[in-house]
């Protein structure tokens, strides 16, 4: 037996203002912590906290205790070997992006992996060289140590070869990137990556893929192209390539094309039949072995002038201290690299954490990558992050933990120390071809542009601006421009949100935009205005403007008109030209009095009837050709359900706006306001004799029921009489007033003001 689905509900409860709700429902008394309390808690130390801190700093202790040897070990071994082979090839290829000798990429697949094994919280990412980060490092390296021109004057680089100088610059830069990442992790600012939206990262990485593609053309064509950096570097590289295109090495070109076609085809097969294949076909490794054999057999280097990887040392270099001069020159470049490297790795780690249901810690990831890059930089490793394709191999081949990562590092170690010499005849054009094929995923992100244009044009603009800025200004400036545009977009969305006028969906307590629905009910004389964003100094004027558009009049202008009209009526009564009668019809004569000049500040004050025997009915026709714009609403409801905060500047503007409506007898109601905002309004002296706490209602429907009780809908005959007051029986009243009475004398419904002949 299943419980029937309830498709309707009925609730019977009192009508609540915020005041009455607070009176009837007692709140829990909570002590709010002060800044001092938070500081004391942060520095409080006990055994439990020390244990938790130790476990969080060394996550391996946590997952190693629950390691399932029988279920996971075989998968980790297969994954580690597969990932290690891919990491070797990508390490060699990505070091070319950084304008470094190939073996430094192998270091990036070994040293950082060891540290991440102990400190990282992701179990599936493969740590090592990342093409975008390598390219950014390469831009700095070629700027400081150009191919042909003089090097930047840096102490400690004298007497070294170009390769050694570049390796030292790269190592120091990697060390500095690690320092920035470690510092951010210790300061618990891992949240900074939330400012890099998926749209921005997509546009940035697509532009980086274009940069990488163009940077590899010199290897594909076998040309000697100097390194360029800075704005328009991509244009200069293309210019240099096309001016030398006739010098293309045909052996490099043919080899690269064959490798690209075969690798691309097999990768498509891997993707299509991944559910049937036990492990993906390691086509890059296979093609690399074939290319090495062919190059060695036909002596490509000497016989055909093909540029090859060359000598790979059979040992690691001794650790070195970073160069402080390089720190000074590259600090501005290192910070965005630290952000980019972490953002990409964290995004990839988050994907696998969700897929395999475990938690990753952003701050700990910063610490792990920071220490990894500091340790790697000391051994002249290339800056490390993660590559999506390499991580995909580690996860898809059965990897369950970072044991797969440490096994991949062992594979790299074996190749580096024992069989690295076998890779010496490998043509660099093959590495370039492998890099280009692996760019497919990033380049295919261009397909997002039409989708973004249809769904969210502001996001599309962010993507395009980030992409173009990164293409033409360089990746560092492009990232800064993209981030600036993204923050401006956030400000734009918050400063100019889509305000709306709501109406009731007939037969329900639901209110929606009146433009979107057919069967709606909009009570006469009531406007419901929804504010869908925080109210702060930058958008308060926008909201006030939208509010005036919604009600169709300017309350301040009407207030001034009414005060001017009262001044004129007082003058006419004082001169004996006006009298109060209860007879009809009206007798009018034209006044020859000109409107006197008045002080604007006096006109902005509330209407004062204290010295008049009656209260003027502003909805009626006034004598002496006095004209005051009509007000066709008696109640204004502001829906604050989406308002998360109000700052002090906006609070003043809001108070002024509400008083303008109150002073022309429009009742104001604020609904669904956050209780903490109400408390802030109280603490900031928002309420006074004009604006009271009773205007706040718990829900929009509570306010509407209250309004309908105070202002029952008019009958058909009453609407006719309102529109044609001269047809009312006995002509004894020219308008039924539905406004609030604020006079010292009784309101005279039957009184009229007329001229004496």
Q: Let me know the largest β-sheet.
A: 7 strands, mixed
What is the CA–CA distance across the termini? Answer: 87 Å
Task: State the total count of DSSP E strands.
Answer: 11
Basic shape: elongated
Average pLDDT reading: 84
Using only C-alpha atoms, the radius of gyration works out to 38 Å
Structural class: mainly alpha
Unreliable stretches (pLDDT < 50, length at least 5) are: 583-597, 727-757
The proportion of strand residues reads 5-15%
Query: How much helical structure, as a percent, in the residues?
Result: 40-55%
Q: What would you note in describing this structure?
A:
Helix content is 54%, strand content 5%. The protein is built from 30 helices and 11 strands. The longest helix is centred in the middle third of the chain and has 33 residues, at 324-356. It is elongated, with a radius of gyration of 38 Å. Mean pLDDT is 84; it is low at 583-597 and 727-757.
Describe, in short, the structure shown.
54% of the residues lie in helices and 5% in strands. By secondary structure, the protein is mostly helical.
């Amino acid at each position: 037996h299943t419980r029937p689905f309830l498709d309707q509900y009925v609730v019977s409860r009192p009508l609540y203002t915020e005041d009455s709700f607070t009176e009837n429902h007692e709140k829990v008394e909570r002590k709010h912590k002060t800044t001092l309390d938070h500081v004391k808690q942060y520095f409080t130390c006990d055994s439990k906290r020390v244990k938790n801190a130790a476990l969080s700093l060394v996550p391996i202790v946590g997952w190693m205790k629950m390691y399932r040897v029988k279920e996971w070990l075989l998968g980790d071994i297969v994954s580690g070997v597969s990932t290690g082979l891919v990491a070797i090839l990508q390490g060699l290829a990505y070091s070319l992006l950084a304008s470094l000798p190939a073996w430094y990429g192998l270091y990036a697949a070994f040293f950082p992996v060891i540290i991440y094994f102990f400190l990282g919280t992701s179990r599936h990412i493969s740590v090592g060289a990342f093409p975008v980060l390598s390219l950014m490092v390469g831009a700095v390296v070629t700027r400081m140590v150009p191919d042909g021109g003089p090097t930047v004057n840096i102490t400690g680089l004298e007497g070294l070869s170009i390769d050694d100088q570049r390796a030292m610059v790269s190592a120091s830069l990697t060390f500095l990137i690690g320092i920035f990442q470690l510092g951010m992790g210790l300061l618990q600012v891992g949240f900074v990556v939330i400012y890099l939206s998926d749209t921005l990262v997509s546009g940035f990485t697509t532009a980086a893929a274009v940069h990488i593609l163009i940077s590899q053309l010199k290897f594909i064509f076998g040309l000697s192209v100097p390194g360029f950096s800075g704005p328009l570097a991509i244009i200069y590289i293309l210019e240099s390539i096309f001016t030398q295109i006739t010098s293309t090495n045909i052996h490099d070109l043919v080899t690269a094309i064959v490798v690209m076609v075969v690798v691309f085809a097999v990768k498509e097969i891997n993707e299509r039949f991944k559910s049937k294949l036990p492990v993906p076909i390691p086509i890059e490794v296979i093609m690399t072995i074939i290319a090495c054999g062919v190059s060695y057999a036909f002596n490509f280097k000497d016989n055909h002038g093909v540029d090859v990887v060359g000598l790979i040392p059979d040992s690691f270099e001794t650790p070195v201290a970073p160069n402080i001069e390089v720190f000074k020159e590259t600090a501005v470049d290192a910070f965005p690299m630290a952000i980019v490297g972490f953002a990409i790795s964290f995004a990839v780690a988050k994907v696998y954490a969700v897929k395999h249901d475990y938690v990753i810690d952003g701050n700990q990831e910063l610490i792990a990558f920071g220490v990894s890059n500091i340790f790697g930089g000391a051994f002249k490793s290339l800056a490390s992050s993660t590559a999506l394709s390499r991580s995909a191999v580690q996860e898809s081949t059965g990897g369950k933990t970072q044991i797969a990562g440490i096994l991949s590092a062992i594979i790299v170690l074996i190749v580096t120390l024992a069989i690295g010499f076998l890779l010496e005849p490998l043509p660099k054009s093959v590495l370039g071809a492998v890099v280009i094929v692996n760019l497919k995923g990033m380049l295919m992100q261009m397909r997002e542009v039409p989708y973004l244009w249809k769904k969210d044009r502001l996001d599309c603009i962010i993507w395009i601006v980030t992409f173009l800025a990164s293409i033409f200004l360089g990746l560092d400036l492009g990232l800064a421009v993209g981030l600036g545009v993204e923050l401006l977009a956030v400000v734009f969305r918050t400063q100019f949100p889509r305000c709306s006028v709501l109406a009731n969906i007939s037969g329900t307590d639901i209110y929606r935009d009146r433009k979107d629905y057919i069967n709606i009910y909009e009570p006469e004389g009531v406007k419901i205005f929804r504010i869908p964003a925080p109210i702060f100094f930058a958008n308060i004027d926008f909201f006030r403007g939208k509010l005036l558009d919604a009600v169709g009049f300017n309350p301040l202008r009407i207030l001034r008109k009414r005060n001017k009209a009262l001044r004129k009526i007082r003058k006419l009564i004082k001169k004996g030209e006006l009298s109060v009668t209860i007879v009809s019809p009206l007798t009018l004569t034209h006044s020859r009095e000109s409107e006197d000049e008045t002080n604007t500040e006096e006109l902005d004050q509330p209407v004062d009837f204290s010295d008049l025997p009656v209260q003027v009915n502003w909805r009626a026709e006034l004598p002496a050709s006095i004209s005051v714009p009509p007000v066709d609403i008696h109640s204004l409801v502001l829906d604050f359900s989406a308002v998360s905060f109000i700052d002090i500047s906006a609070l003043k503007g809001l108070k002024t706006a509400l008083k303008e409506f109150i002073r022309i007898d429009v009742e104001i109601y604020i609904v669904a306001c956050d209780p903490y905002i109400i408390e802030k309004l109280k603490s900031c002296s928002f309420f006074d004799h004009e604006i009271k706490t009773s205007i706040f209602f718990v829900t929009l429907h509570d306010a509407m029921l209250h309004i309908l009780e105070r202002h029952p809908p008019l009958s058909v005959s009453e609407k006719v009489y309102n529109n044609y007051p001269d047809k009312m029986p006995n002509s004894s009243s020219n308008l039924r007033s539905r406004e609030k009475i604020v006079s010292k004398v009784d309101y005279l419904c039957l009184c009229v003001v007329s001229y004496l002949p």
